[in-house]
Amino acid sequence: MNSQSTAGFLGTLVAAVVLAAAFIYGPSPSQIRNPQPAAARQPAPVAVPAPAPTPRGPVIREVPNN
């Protein structure tokens, strides 16, 4: 076997794997003929800004004396 026939064999093998993957992971014929209707798009709700946080006093933590 020379390098051209080896390359041809490997190319055929890769093409067969790619074709098999396309059939396995591709859409089924029923999905192609009867696609799901697109959901009616509703306008996005207007975002209400969050109220400002309530100011708080200083945080005092007890530190143990060792």
UniProtKB/TrEMBL annotation:
Compositional bias annotation for Low complexity: 35-45
Specify where the region named Disordered lies, as residue ranges.
31-66
Pro residues bias locations: 46-56
| Protein name, per record | Dynamin
